[in-house]
């Protein structure tokens, strides 16, 4: 669509999984997309692959969401390349799953620093650019942000926190004409935590489905804001 041409999205953790699916969908709209990874080789490799398709331009950026300085540098890089940021997709995340007895301090800290504090850093670093563009923030939470489970203390805490954070900043920013939606997927067929999707995962949500959802939200009339969207597989296997 013409109105998306030359618009710019910054996607954290955009080299694979949900971030990659969103990047592909936005490029197909004609948007330019910057995808981040903690390693520049992964970011540039994914950007090269994305540039073989789509209608916009993809840029690979090295950045670590656990560092505010790194997020500021990423934003500066994107603005230097494209001149603006219209959409932020705060997607980077990880999971450590263990009982509270076995959860290490390092695992707890990494989960909170990446899944929760990392989103704060990404939003904070992008805020001035998003105010100028009257942009849109998407945070990728999880159904684990409203449904707790055993061995999920760190992950549940990070996603419950992320859901609350996202809803609060939605209220903070809507008078600035910045929209905020948090997307809460259930089981998604991705490489999360080292998994490799197979045909057995076809019942799960696919990363391109989340990309399609982001596009639909961007196309929605600006008077309306779906602020929290739960997404589930239509027909999971019977237990």
From TrEMBL:
Where do the Ketoreductase domain residues begin and end? 7-192
Output one GO BP term.
monocarboxylic acid metabolic process
Lineage top rank: taxon:
Bacteria
Which InterPro entries does the protein's record reference?
KR_dom (IPR057326), NAD(P)-bd_dom_sf (IPR036291), Sc_DH/Rdtase_CS (IPR020904), SDR (IPR050259), SDR_fam (IPR002347)
Q: Which family does it belong to?
A: Belongs to the short-chain dehydrogenases/reductases (SDR) family.
Report what the protein is called.
Ketoreductase domain-containing protein
Origin species = Leeuwenhoekiella polynyae
């Amino acid at each position: 669509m013409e109105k998306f041409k030359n618009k710019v999205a910054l996607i954290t953790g955009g080299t694979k999984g949900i971030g990659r699916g969103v990047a592909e969908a936005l490029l197909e709209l004609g948007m330019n997309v910057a995808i981040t990874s903690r390693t520049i080789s992964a970011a540039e490799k994914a950007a090269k692959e994305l540039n073989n398709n789509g209608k916009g331009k993809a840029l690979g950026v090295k950045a670590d969401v656990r560092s505010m300085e790194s997020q500021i540098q990423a934003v500066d890089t994107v603005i230097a390349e494209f001149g603006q940021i219209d959409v932020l997709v705060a997607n980077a995340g990880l999971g450590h799953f263990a009982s509270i007895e076995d959860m290490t301090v390092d695992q707890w800290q990494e989960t909170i620093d990446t899944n929760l504090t990392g989103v704060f850093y990404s939003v904070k670093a992008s805020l001035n650019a998003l105010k100028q563009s009257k942009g849109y923030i998407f945070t990728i939470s999880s159904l684990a942000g409203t449904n707790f489970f055993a061995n999920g203390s760190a992950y549940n805490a990070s996603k419950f926190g992320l859901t609350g954070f996202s809803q609060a900043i939605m209220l903070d920013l809507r008078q600035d004409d910045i929209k905020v939606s948090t997307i809460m997927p259930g089981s998604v067929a991705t490489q999360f935590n080292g998994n490799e999707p197979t045909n057995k995962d076809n019942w799960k949500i696919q990363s391109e489905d989340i990309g399609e959802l982001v596009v639909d939200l961007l196309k929605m009339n600006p008077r309306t804001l779906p602020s929290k969207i739960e997404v589930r597989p239509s027909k999971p296997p019977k237990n």
